[in-house]
Every structure is written in structure tokens, then in C-alpha cells.
Amino acid sequence: MVKFAKPELLEFFFLEVTSYIPAIRQGLDLLALDRAASTTIEELHRLFHNIKGAASQVQLSDLSKGAKVVETALDVLLAAKRPISAPLLTALHETVDLLILSSNDKNHFLAAGEEGQDFCEQVEAIFSTCQGDEAVGREQHENNRRQEYVHDVRSIFPLLQELAGCLDGGDTALNGAVYGKLAHAVSLLSATLVAASMQRQGRLMQDFQLVLEELSFTAITHQPEMSGLMQDFLRFLEASFSHEDPENNTTIHRVQQQLERCKVLLAPPEQMQEDLFFLDEALDVDALSAFADPAGDDSSVDFLDELVGTNFIEDQAVEELDDELLDEPVDEDQLLLQAIFCEECDEHFIVINQSLNHLEGRVKEPSVLTQKLRASVGEMRRAVHTLKGAASMTRMNLLAGGAHALEDLLDWLHDEAEEILPEEVQLIATGIDVIETLSQSPEATDSPRLDSVVAVLRKYLHSRSKPADTEAASTDQPVWAIVEKPAATEQSVFVDEPRQPEPAGSAVADVALPGDATVLRVRMEDLNELVSIEGELVVARGAMEKMVEVFYQTLDELENVKENLRRKSQELELGFEVQSLYGFNSLTAENGNDAPIADGLADFDPIELDRYSQLHLIIRSLNEISVDVNSIHASLTSLAGDIGGQVGKQQLTMRLMQDKLMRIRMTPLSSISRVLFRTVRDTAAKLGKKATLRIRGEDVVMDRFVWAGITDPLMHILRNGVDHGIESAEVRAAAGKPETGTIILQAEQRSRNVVLRIADDGGGIDMSLVRDKISRDGLAEKPETLDEKELLEYLFHPSFTTRQQITTLSGRGVGLDVVRQNISNLHGSIQIHNTPGQGVEFEIHIPFTLSVNRAALVSVAGREFAVPLQDILQVKHFSAAELVYKDDTAGLFLPFGDALVEVSNLGYHLQLEKKLVPTGSTSEGILAILFMQGEEQCAVAVEAIVEQREIVVKNLGSHLTHVRGISGVTLTGSGGIIPILNLRELVAIRMTGGLADSTPLRQMESTAPPKVLIVDDSISVRHSVARLVESQGWQQLQAVDGRDALAKMDSFLPDVIILDIEMPRMNGYEFKSSLNNQQLYKDIPVVMITSRASEKHQKKARELGITHYLTKPYKEDAFVRLLENIRSGLQVRGR
Amino acid sequence: MSSAPELKNLIRHIDSQPVEVIDEEVMTARQPAADREEMNRYVVVEIGALHLAIAIDDLAEVGPLPTITALPNLPAWILGIVNIRSEIVSIVDFVGFLGMSGRAICNGNRFAILRHKKQKIGLRLDRIIGTVNKAVSEKQLLEPVDRNSLHAGLVTSGLLVGKKLYYILSVKRFLSASRLVDYNNTGK
Fold it and tell me: Does residue A59 or residue B87 have the better pLDDT?
């Protein structure tokens, strides 16, 4: 906190300031008459300097800073030796007013303190406006000066043009002289431009000067048109200086371009020959017409007009594009904008492609534009328009230009056309393809394909929109054929005046203000991170639930203890209190000082008067403790209830959050449909086939990540369908099929799965070819015994192909194995259904999300596995009477609906058990999970269903990218791993012979840490042993005596017991005897650790079957070795 | 949740204890080398009958082996997966991976997580013997006995610690070995 000076000092300060005011006023008045009066300015500067210093002295720093603002402004003025401007004068007047106001209200300074002052802020506000005006003034001055120079420079060019007219084709000496003169003149121009702060134009003139000098020294003969060329170029330069700001990027860039072209054209003939090819490539039509043809003045003029005209100035988009070409740094915000735009494009392209698909489906021949068709065109037009506006805003001018041309056609179709032709739809599709490609390449600066398409669009529109030309247009070759032609030929026929793209501002109307927006874009990775965090929360909540369970158990134990305590204290009270009345001296009698008092009470019988001994007090306090424990227990029970309630609420909230997050990630099939349409279209075009794709169920949604993962497999299947499946037109005609082959992609939501069916109406798979291939490659011992289903499975083998020839599209045998792999990675499955002569259907089942799921935890061979609920049709216990054996297949079947479903042992598929057919079926029946394997119902037997719970799917780490039959793992609250089963894949392995009889059984928990029960009444010993045990990665539990140990063994079956001998309630020998009487416990190895080293004790232990006997103090190393040995023994025995 | 100790702490702990394999002779012999050239630090371990040295830079973690969850349809030498602080890591029986059936099987309850770039794989260990600092010049190039053997490229040099030779495991090559990566297509 700033301490203010004494009020007297402030008084003096304000008196001083007040004394300056008249002088300042007077100075300002003088300046109003003579703005250049430097002495007056100096005087004002001095006065404000004084105010600044004085204010600082009395610790009015705000006022001091304000005065400094004025002082600085006057400093600048004095340094520049400029007259004071009107705004600055006004600002000084306002400052003086403010100063007077502050002086009159000095109490304000005292009361408000430093923080409350705002003098400086106000002065800065006044001067910022003024300085802005000053800057504008200076800029104006600079501009005026530059305009004068520009005017002078421009006036020289006509003279130079005249001089260039003297160039003669044959007279080399004259030409040399003319070039020399021109070079000299241009050097002067260059110097003038640099002096006028037009450095870039100056440098260009230097370049031009060098060209001219070189020409002057080279005795060359010219073509007669060179004179005209030089004149044209000088006229071009004159035109460029007609522009208001010749230093702007566009002008500089164009002059630079034309200078380069001019250099090439003016080069000596031999070099020109060499560059001829380059010229063809480099020069555009306009430039050639401007420079090469002396008779082409008209086109030169057009060119110059273009340069000088309004386009030059207003073509903001081109200018900005040129800015980029001039190596100006790329703005990071711009990149961000482009990234956002790319994402936004997706939405627009979905709409566009939906409409396009509609048009493609309906317009097979020239069709009248019905209301529906027109609506489709309208929707597409809206989307293209928005796309164009957004592209302009994002400076993706190529795309904007393409969209603009496309919009023209759509406008015409929507507003004027009576009918729509198939080639128009095709043209639109091509245009969409091109701009979609461009949307993925924001950095692209040119696109010959786009140029070509734009030219065709315009030409087509031009011809179609003029009835007189319709005939001519119709005789043209098909539109798609034109599109494929080189751009140059199309550009040369383009005569239509291009409509200028709408200014970027027009798109603003389409863009909602941030505050009004109902949609917020979020980066996918952020969302994924959020989902991942949410998953961690689910796991953490699981751990919390477990803890709450333990807490409840502990409360139960506490209740037992509380009851014991209450009972014991009551026993004490009832049993001993009465006796103590007679047997113990009262507390008062023990106190010597109070002896007379006690003697005075001797007449009372103990029944007549209570007398309290020390024991009394202990018993009473024990009672009170019991009551306190009771109270604490009640509080804890209540608290546990509250915590349980909160955990329950949390569970509900998190489930809600999961659903919401999942919904955010969901996108419809239509989000990828355009890619699929394009795949079919392109493949068919390349193969010269006619094929069309129909998509049903475009509104079926899946996790965006899943769509991304399934797109490649779908594209592969579609390419295969067109290439392998759809026959040639002749074959189809012979088979009585329509000329155009059809592939139908159908999506269907089935519970938490999506089923995708891709069916073609082609020739189907020739099974004999598959069988031959298997036989030829020796892939199966007896291929002839394989049924169709088994044969089809071989199509998913790596490098399996029945094609004799490799094409760019297929036939390499790389594909379906990868397709299956990709689908498996998404926890899905794929099957093939073949109908020879009629086509093939691929059926893909895929969970619509991979993030959070619900699963049934099942127990198999003592282990837990998770089965996603969406995979389960039903879980049912079948009684022994319901089971059906079939001798022919040696299989066991379950009645399900009207059918019998074969059941297998899940433990077998998991390589945990040897028998495929479930055991225990004769007496207890079978608990089975029924699920769908493609179109078939399947069943697996499990031991038990542990629970149903939420799971968070985690992958199998960086190494195990895919384990057949396992789609991931989930973690328990305590960190345990539960594999998540992909039942379809798991069961399919057996079908394809993936599991040989000799496959070793997995020792699933082979390294589960051994469990050690430490039984000792000494807490120190227990903890000491526990530390050693845990250091070996073993799991331990402690018990205080034999009885406690027996109780704990109900829930904790140890592998080893560390046992003391002497303990209360049940000693070590008694405990071991008790174990020996129980089948489950009798073989558990026991290590006795005791201080009793006598042979007698050891003998007793041996008699009870205790073979490990250590005496305290024992060596830790020996103890650890002993544990290791026991553990090895356990492993040998197959624990 | 498993709570494996930090690698640095563990190594510090190991270093603080006298390690029988690093005898005084070795300690004194390595001192001058340390002054002269750059030293590499290795963790030396036992896997069955194999004695390996693993560069500490290639290790993400060593510690007591958590419960391995075995998975079906994998080669026997992939023992399963473990949960290391919510990260799933596969555990490999290195002896089995090499196909050295005659060698003693590793039953240890320790593990080391090898890492290269983003890939992590755990090796089940019988024993973590200690750490050693060795100069590059102290590496002994091994004569490849069988160039076709699985471990031909995985172990090309060794370290003499005391009188025992420890093979330096090339973690990069191991983690990119086709047998390891294409586990679905390799033999059991």
C-alpha cells in the first residue's frame, strides 16, 4: 500500500499545479494561432514535465504518469519538428480541463487512495485517439507524397514506349543503343521508386534494367514483333502504376511474373529455342496474347484492362492467394481455421452426397425436375453455397471457386431448368468429387482437374442455359469424357465471363455468432481423452464400491465386538460389583485424609449405602466405553448408508454420462457413405463395368471410431464386389440380369450391435476354384471333404486368391484376411454367404462402440471372464432332463425356441478344460449362454454367472494387438484383469480347426501370488513376517490366534500357513489338529515359527504333519528360501 | 491396483546392497575405465539358465511380478498379461521364446518391462542380480554359433562380470523380432 504524503504537501502540490494552468492555457491559445510555434510547445513541455516531477514527489504516481503521457506526446512533436495537429491541441485542452478538475477535487485523491485514481487512464484515452489521428495523418501525408512520385514515374512510361518503338528487327547497333537508353531510364526510375519508399517496385525495375543492359550488350537481331512486345510490357508497367498502391502484393507479384515472361521472350534466339517447350508450359493464354503477338493489341489491352480494372483491386481472394505465394508466413490461426473447415466439410458433404445419391438413383434418363428432384437440387445447392462461403472465409479459394461454379449449375437447375439429364448428375458428382478432394488439401494452390471441371461446368451451363445452343450441346461428347480432357483445351474454349465469387462477407450471414451457436466443435482427441478419463472413473468407482463392501463387513465385525464388549461389561457389573461391595475397600476408605468421613459411614450396611472401589470405576468406565462404541457404531452405520447412497447416485450419474459421451461419438452411416459411393463409382469406371451402390439404413449410428475402422474393410469388399462379383455387361445380359450390377449395403441396428450386409447380384464364388486352390497349395489334406462353409473360410487366409491375374484392384490375395483382422480389431466378426450365380453377401457384426460396455462376468474353470451383454441372447439354466444327446455327432444340445442348439464347454474354447462337451450335465444340468454366430444360434456352458456390471474395455497392450477370441480386458477395482470374450470368434476357432487336440491347457493363474496366512499373537512378529512375504510378491493375511485363523480361512484359502505355537484361545498345535481334520485344509503346508526350540516341541509338530520348523530369531534369507522352496513345490503339484 | 516401486528407487535399493557378482576385482578394474570413456549401465538378470544384461535405457520397470492373466490362443511362450498401473503389458517367457527347450524353465516372480518406442513387453525373470556400469570397450563380441538360431541377432555381445558372462540383450531387435510380433502366425 502506498503511503500518501502529509496533507500539507498535497496542498502545496495542487497550488503549484493551479499556478501552471494559466500559462498552459495561454500556450494553447498561442498554438491555436500558430501551430508550428516551437517555443510555445517547449514551454508546455516544461510545464507538464514539472507537474510530472512534482506529482511523483508527493507520491501521486497516477497523476505523474498522466503528465508523462502529455510530456511524451510533446517530446515526439519537438523531435519531429512538426506543427501541432488539431487533434493534439484538442487533447491538450481536454487534459488541462481534467487537471483542473482533479485540482479542485483533491480530496478525492486523499479519500480514494492510489487505487481509486484514474487520471492517467483518462489522459491515455484522450491521447490514444489523438495519436491514432496523428498516425492517420502521417500515413496520408506519406501516401500523398508517394502518389506524387507515382504520377511522375507513370508519366515517363509513354516516353519509354515511344523509345521502344525505335527498336528495329535488323539494325543491331540501333537496337543496342535503344536498349542502353531504356536501361538508363529504368535505372533512374528504380532510384526514384526507392526514394519514394517503393522498395519492391524499385527492385523489380533494377531487374528490368539488368535485362535491358544485357540486351544492349548483345548484338542480336530481333523479330519485328519484339518492338511491340517491349512496348506492351512498358504499357503494362504504366498500367501497374495507375493503381493506387503499386506496392501491394498483387501488383508486385504480377509485375514480377510478367517480367519473368518478358525475360524469356526477349532472350537471344538460340536460348529462346531451348525455352520454347518451357514457354508452352509456362505462359498462360493471356500472357501470350499480350506479349507475343504484335498485332494482338486488343488482347493486350484486355489484359491491361484486367490489370488496371476493378477486378485487380477487388479480387480479394486472388490477392490473398498471391500473398501466400509471396512467402509470407502462414498464420497459425489460418491453419486452425482450415482444420475446423475440413471438419465442417464433412457435414456438408453428407448432405450433398445424400442429395446426389437421390439424384443418381432417380435420374437414369432425362427426367422432368419434379418437386422432389428440385428439392434435392435445392438441398445440395444450399450445402454447396455454405461450403463456398466457409471456404472463402478460410481462404481456400480453389475450393470456393469450384463450389461457385457448381453452384451456378445447381442454381440453374433449381431455378430455370425444366428437366435434368443423367450427364448433369454425373457432372455434379465429378464436381463434388473434386472439391471434396480439395477440402482435404487446404494447402493446395492449384488443381488442373478443378480448372478443367470448372471450365466444363461453365461451358455446359452456357450451352444448356441458351436454348439456341441446346442442339449443339447435345451433339457434344458426354460430359464426363470432356472432364477427363486436358485443362488447356477446355480453357481455350471458355468464353463465358466468370461471375465473381461472392465477397467473403456474404458468408458471414450464414455463420452464427459464437454466443448464438447451438453446436460447439470439439476435437476428436479431446473427446477420446474425456471418454478415457470417464473409463478410469468407472474403474475407480468399482474400487470404491469394493471398499464400501469391505467397510460394511468391517462394520459387521465391529458390531460383534461391540456386542462382546457390552456383554462382558454387563457380566462384570453383575458378577463382580456386588461382591466388591464386601470384598474390596471403598475408594473413600483408601484415602487417608478422608478416613474420618469413612469412619462416619461405617454404620451403613453396603446395601444401604453404595461404596465404590477402583474396580467400580473401571467397570463404570467400561460401561461408558461400551455405550460410546455403540454410538460410534451407529454413526458409522449411518455414514455407511450415506456413502452407499452416494455411490449409488454416482453410479447412476456416471451411467448417464457414459450414455451422453457415447451419443456424442455416434455418427450415422451416411457420414461415410459418400466414400463408399465413390469407391463403387471409381472402381466401375476403371473396370469399364456398370455398377451401382444402394445403401439402406443410412441413419444407423455407430461410434465414429468404429466407422473409421470399418470404412477400409467396406471399401475393400465393395471393390471386390465390383471387380470379382459383378459380371461384364455381356455376361449379365446372357444371364438375364440387368445391365447394371447392384451392390446393396444394408445396415441394421441390433441391440448394441450393428449388422452390415454387403450383397452383390454378381456371379457368386465358384467353389470349385476355391477347392482347386486349396488343393494346389496344399492348404488342407482332403479338400474334397470340406463343406462350403469350411471352403469359404479359406478366403480369409492370407495370400489366398482364385484370380489368375493380378490387377491394380485385386487378385493379389491381400485383402480379406486384413478385412477380417480389422473387423476383429473392432471386436466384430465377418461371414460370407455365397449363392452361385446370384451373388455373394458379406455379413459383418460389429459392436457400435468400443468404449464402455456392460457385461456378464462368468466363471469358467475357477476364472472370471466378461461376456458383453450385447453378445448374449439368453443365459439359462437347463435341467438334466432338458438336455438332448445326439449319438451321431456325439454332441449335447439344448432346446431353444423350436430348435436344438449345440452347446460346447466354454472352458474348452479357453483352453482351460479338455472336454468339448460340458460335463456335469447328467445330474445338475447346464448353465448356458446362448448367442448368435452369424445366423446360427450357439451355446456355451459356464460354471456360474458371477455378476452383471459395467466394464471399461482396455486393449491388450502394445504387443498383443489381437488375440483370437479375446476382444480386450477390463480391470477390477483391485486391479485384477478380466478378459473380455468375443464368443463368436472364440467358438469359430474350433470350427476352423484352430484348436488342435494337442494344444496344451493354459495354466491361467500360474503366477498368481501364493497366499500366506500368518498366525501369531504378537503383532510385531506378524508384521515382520508380513513384510518379508510381501517383498516376495506374495499375498498375506494375518490372524491373532488359531480360532481367528480358522474363521479367516473361510474366505482366504492360503497356500502356506506361518504358525506360532503359543497363542490365546487356540494354540498352534490345536489349530493344526483342527486343520488335519478338514479335507480342504489338511495338506496346506505349515511353517512353524516359535521360540520353543526343544526337541519335544519339534516332535509334537512333526506328529501333526508340520515339516518346516524355524526357531526365533530366524534368518530372513533362510525364511525366504524356505518360501521359495514351498512355492516351487506348489508349482510342481500344479497349484 | 499394483504398486510396483519406481525403477530408480529399486535400482538404488539394489545398488545399496552388496552384490555378490560384482566382486572387488571388478569394482577396481572398472574404475579407471569410468574415467576414460562413457559408461553404460545394465541390469543383470537370470532367466532359467540364461544370464542376461539389459541396458537400463531399454527398461521401463523391474519389480515383483504381478498376477499374470493367461489368455487362450497364444503361443505358450506368451505367458499372458499383467496390469501395471492400469497399463496392460504382455509377459514373455524368454527361454520359451528362444525355443531352448532343454534349458531350465523360468519360474521366477520378478519381471522386467522392456521398451522400445511405444512398444512394451515384460520378461519373466528368475532373479534380478544387480546393476553394473560398463564401458563400451568392455563389451565382448560373441561369435555367432548358429546364425540361423532365433537368438542370433538378439544377443551379439556379452559382459564379463566376475567370472560369469552375461549376454547383452538387444531390446530393439527383440521387440521387433518377427516371431514376437507375428505371434499369431508363429508356432506354439
Answer: B87
Pair A973, A1019 in one domain: no
Tell me whether A976 touches chain B (CB under 8 Å).
yes
Which residues of chain A does B65 touch, with a Cβ-Cβ cutoff of 8 Å? 1007, 1033
Residue A417 has pLDDT above 60, yes or no: yes
Beta carbons of A930 and A842 less than 8 angstroms apart: no
Q: How many domains does chain B have?
A: 1
pLDDT tens track for A202-261: 878 888 888 787 777 665 555 556 777 777 788 778 777 776 677 777 777 777 777 777
Chain A partners within 8 Å of B67 (Cβ): 976-977, 1005, 1007-1009
- Nearest chain B Cα distance for residue A1115, angstroms: 17
Q: How confident is the model at residue A1105 (pLDDT cuts 50, 70, 90)?
A: confident
Task: Give the domain range for residue A1069.
Answer: 1011-1132
The distance of Cα A281 from the centroid of its chain, to the nearest Å, equals 43
B interface test, pick of A908, A955, A960, A1031 with most B CB neighbours within 10 Å: A960
| Interchain contact, A1007 vs B109, CB within 8 Å | yes
* Half-sphere exposure at residue A13, Cβ-oriented, CA atoms within 13 angstroms: 28
Chains A, B: CB contacts within 8 A come to: 119
Using the 3D structure, point to which of A647, A666, A685 is the last residue of a domain: A666
Maximum pairwise Cα distance, chain B: 52
Mean pLDDT of all residues in A875-886: 85
Whose CA is closest to A984, among A1040, A933, A917, A912? A933
Single residue among A632, A650, A666 that ends a domain in this structure: A666
Q: How many domains does chain A have?
A: 7
Mean pLDDT value of segment A969-986: 86
Question: Has residue A1002 been placed in a domain?
Answer: no
CATH number at residue A1124: 3.40.50.2300
Residue B188 lies in a domain: no
Spell out the residues 6+ positions from residue B145 whose beta carbon is closer than 8 angstroms to its own.
none
State the CB neighbour count (10 A cutoff) for residue A380. Answer: 26
Question: Within a domain: residue A322?
Answer: no
> Is A954 an interface residue toward B (CB < 8 Å)?
yes
Write down the pLDDT at residue A6: 58
A281 in a structural domain: yes
Picking from A975, A986, A1007, the nearest residue to B83 by CB comes out as A975
Nearest to A61 by CA among A52, A72, A70: A52
Looking at chain A, the whole-number percentage of residues with pLDDT higher than 70 is: 74
Residue B1, domain member (yes or no): no
A691 plus A833 within the same structural domain: yes
pLDDT of residue A872: 87
The answer to whether the Cβ–Cβ distance between A1004 and B183 falls below 8 Å is: no
Q: Is B114 contained in some domain?
A: yes
Same domain, A937 and A1053: no
Structural domain boundaries, residue B59? 7-181
What whole-number distance in Å separates Cα of residue B96 and Cα of residue B179? 12
Q: What's the rounded mean pLDDT across residues A436-448? A: 74
Here the CATH number for the domain that contains residue B156 is: 2.40.50.180
Is A979 near chain B, with CB under 8 Å? Answer: yes
Let me know: does A120 contact A66? Beta carbons within 8 Å: yes
Are A962 and A1018 part of one and the same domain?
no
A632/A692 same-domain check: no
Gap between the Cα atoms of A933 and A146, Å rounded = 82
Q: A195 at the B interface (CB within 8 A)?
A: no
- The answer to whether residue A325 sits within a structural domain is no
Q: pLDDT value at position B81?
A: 94
**For the residues A465-483, what does the mean pLDDT come to?**
45
Same domain, yes or no: A1029 and A936: no
- DSSP line for A105-158: THHHHHHHTTTT--HHHHHHHHHHHHHHHHHHHHHHHHHHHHHHHHHHHHHHHH
Q: How far is B141 from chain A (nearest CA, A)?
A: 30
